[in-house]
Design a protein that fits this description.
This protein is an alpha+beta fold and 707 residues long. 51% of the residues lie in helices and 16% in strands.
């Protein structure tokens, strides 16, 4: 059979990664050629997620402080004037004041330390928040109580001081326990690089050195399956390199002399010799680390809603307290003024506000876990319902990140679809290449018998070869097929390739007998998710490093509002920035190291659970089940959570609106003064209302979901 004619049956092949393949061929990347799709090295172990360490230590610290303060608060409660007044008993013994002073001093300095130290940071930053409001109250209560113990007459606030610190410690502990600490993305990025590299000396010998000792121009030796230690240019050897960890691209890329390789990628089954081109902060990975660090630093400046409320309450309390002091000093001397000022400061610090947000957050974290979500950044989560643009990465996010067979084209009468797939299955089953895995999966789903293979080997940069039933079989990339002198319908190939498909050709006993088209499969749930998001008025966009035709194909399939293609990883964050500059809030959904800067830059970074450690630890929220349908759960739960937080803050602050003027003595002329006893009762009721309301979050969530 003539080589030039046996492709005449190759027509209407819809196909998905081949044009990428052609596009990259022109750039000498051979990006999607099925070239030498042999076994390549594993991804290696990236170590732990870094979850827990610092956060667990802080939680243990708060827990310990809580129990110590609780134990010390019991005797303070028993001998507190307020308790005796409310319950109608009387205790009086020598040294009672000194005992209260001693217990309260430990409570103030030990229990109050976290709040006082954070308040100092808030003071230095010039932005008061919850910590300054708490500290204003506990410092005022402690100082005034010490004065009443030793120098002036008046009722002390030792028990109020202890109960305030106790409730605030409880609130912070609840919130920490619900959240735990987020992972350290920068640590995980650093783990992508090996610590050692093999340097080639002048005499050709090699020795191991630390990666940070490498200099530009050093020659390095990269063994099969090894992690590439640093950015370099290949000068000898050829191998397929798995860059998926860095680029998100699922097909290994052929690297030959002159090709650039990136530190952190994984070498395939060939040996590479390369010259170091970048070191230190110039490397690809270092630049990603910088982008992530900068974006996270910007994001960490955001204030939680409770801090925003606390800021205003702080100013209100401060002004009200000073006015009360000045007014009452003029009326009845400075002691009366001092008493009303301290009462105002103490009552201004809302027990309920301290618990309002943590209780809702604890409940929402629990509901999030049930919905397949892990919340790492509370502030970003609280504002998730405001998102009006969602940007999805393509590979591994909107698509499965693994290949499936789209079409089998038979070009010889000796074969049908099944028999052609069976011989290809025999050869491909010897390889661990992503394309091979896709073909094997298809054959296994059809329950085909696996034929025996002899003389199997990888034609690096070209394809695979082996003997089945005594006949030589080659599975070649389009480029290698042309080079071998075979022809096929180029127009049909172009049409198929333009849809982003990768095509491999089957040579049986020196005859071109067929082709198999594979593509990265669009996730089943993607279309429904995109439609639902659009129904909510959210623009749905895609950001990918793939070429425009591939991106457009996926965009058309999913009816996306916009597609950004051929975007390099360091440009992804810039693209998010420009969308933010257009107005509105932007969410990014991704799974790769290359998505990390964009995840950090976005108002809400959503990481796919099955993605890389780096993406997971940069994301504000992780989709634990790797199901993008859970993006809808994020928006719904955020909306429900915000409603409950606002309701609780209204209750918490509502108490203050009434209590502060009364504590300042506005109605004292009518005989209405909010003393510590009555204020404690109102505080307790307010706190109970917040706790019960937080427990009702699941109902609000269901209502929002059903809308």
């Amino acid at each position: 059979m003539d080589k030039d004619n046996n492709a005449k049956h190759h027509h209407n092949m819809h196909h998905d990664h081949g044009n990428e393949h052609m596009h990259h061929e022109e750039h000498n990347h051979n990006h999607h050629d099925h070239s030498g799709h042999g076994d390549h090295g594993g991804h290696g172990d990236h170590g732990g997620h870094g979850h827990g360490g610092h956060g667990a230590h802080m939680m243990a610290d708060f827990k310990q402080r809580f129990w110590v303060v609780l134990v010390l608060s019991i005797p303070l409660a028993i001998i507190a004037p307020m308790s005796m007044h409310l319950l109608g008993y009387h205790i009086d013994f020598p040294g009672q004041g000194l005992l209260e002073f001693g217990l309260a001093t430990i409570v103030f300095f030990y229990g109050g330390k976290p709040f006082l130290s954070h308040a100092w940071h808030e003071l230095k930053s010039g932005v008061p928040g919850m910590m300054m409001l708490i500290s204003l109250a506990i410092v005022a209560a402690y100082v005034y109580s010490v004065l009443t113990t030793f120098f002036i007459s008046g009722m002390n606030y030792y028990f109020e001081l202890a109960s305030l610190i106790l409730i605030m410690l409880a609130g912070h502990y609840i919130e920490m326990k619900a959240q735990m600490s987020a992972g350290n993305a920068v640590e995980s990025l650093a783990k992508l690089l090996p610590s050692d590299a093999e340097v080639i000396h002048e005499d050709g010998s090699t020795s191991e050195v630390k990666v940070d000792q490498l200099k530009k121009g050093d020659r390095i030796f990269i063994r099969p399956g090894a992690k590439i230690p640093i950015d370099a240019t290949v000068y000898e050897g050829h191998s397929e390199v798995d860059e998926s960890m860095l680029t998100g691209e699922s097909v290994p890329v052929l690297k030959e002399a002159g090709a650039q390789i990136v530190g952190g990628a994984i070498n395939g089954d060939g040996i590479l010799k390369a010259t170091v081109t970048k070191t230190g902060t110039d490397t690809y990975l270092a630049q990603i680390i910088n982008l992530v660090t900068d974006a996270q630093a910007q994001k960490s400046k955001a204030q939680s809603i409770a801090d925003v409320w606390a800021k205003y309450l702080f100013y209100i309390a401060l002004v009200a307290g000073i006015i009360a002091f000045v007014a009452w000093t003029g009326v009845d001397g400075y002691l009366m003024g001092l008493q009303f000022m301290v009462a105002t400061f103490v009552i201004a610090c809302p027990h309920a506000l301290g618990l309002a947000v943590p209780l809702v957050n604890a409940e929402s974290t629990s509901l999030a876990a049930e919905s397949g979500l892990f919340i790492q950044n509370r502030i970003a989560f609280e504002d998730a319902h405001k998102i009006d643009k969602i940007v999805f990465d393509k590979t591994g996010t909107l698509t499965q990140g693994e290949f499936g067979v789209d079409e089998i084209t038979v070009m010889d009468d000796k074969f049908n679809e099944t028999s052609l797939l069976q011989i290809v299955y025999a050869i491909e089953s010897q390889s661990e290449h992503p394309i091979a895995r896709g073909i094997v999966k298809e054959a296994e789903s059809r329950k085909l018998e696996k034929l025996q293979v002899a003389d199997y080997h990888n034609l690096t940069g070209k394809g695979l070869e082996g003997t089945v039933n005594g006949k030589n079989i080659q599975i070649l990339s389009p480029k290698a097929t042309r080079q071998a002198g075979y022809t096929f319908d180029e127009a049909a190939f172009e049409a198929s390739a333009s849809k982003g498909r990768t095509i491999v050709f089957v040579i049986y006993d020196q005859v071109l007998v067929g082709a198999i088209a594979v593509s990265d499969i669009v996730r089943e749930e993607a279309k429904a998710v995109v439609a639902e998001l659009q129904n909510k008025g959210i623009q749905v966009l895609m950001l990918t490093g793939d070429n425009q035709q591939v991106a457009d194909s996926v965009g058309e399939t999913l009816h996306l509002d916009g597609v950004f293609a051929e975007v390099l990883s360091d440009e992804k964050a810039d693209k998010i920035k420009s969308l933010q500059a257009d107005g509105g809030r932007v969410a990014m959904v991704g799974d790769g190291v290359n998505d990390a800067p964009a995840l950090a830059q976005a108002d809400l970074g959503i990481a796919i659970g099955a993605g890389t450690d780096v993406a997971r630890e940069t994301g504000d929220i992780i989709l634990v089940d790797s199901n993008i349908h859970d993006v809808l759960n994020i928006l719904n739960l955020s909306k429900a959570t915000k409603q409950k937080i606002n309701q609780n803050l209204m209750w918490g602050a509502g108490y203050n609106v009434v209590a502060i003027p009364l504590a300042a003595g506005v109605l004292a002329g009518l005989g209405i003064v909010l003393g510590p006893a009555l204020s404690a009762i109102i505080m307790s009721l307010s706190t109970v209302v917040c706790a019960v309301n937080a427990r009702m979050l699941h109902r609000t969530y269901k209502k929002v979901q059903n809308k």
